[in-house]
Amino acid sequence: MALSIRLSRGGSKKRPYYRIVVADARSPRDGKFIEKLGNYNPLLAKDDEKRIVLDAERAKHWLAMGAQPTDRVARFLDVAGVKERTARNNPKKAEPGEKAKERAEERAEKAKAAEEAAAEAANAPAPAAADAEASAE
Question: Where is the composition biased (Low complexity) (predicted)?
Answer without folding.
Answer: 119-137
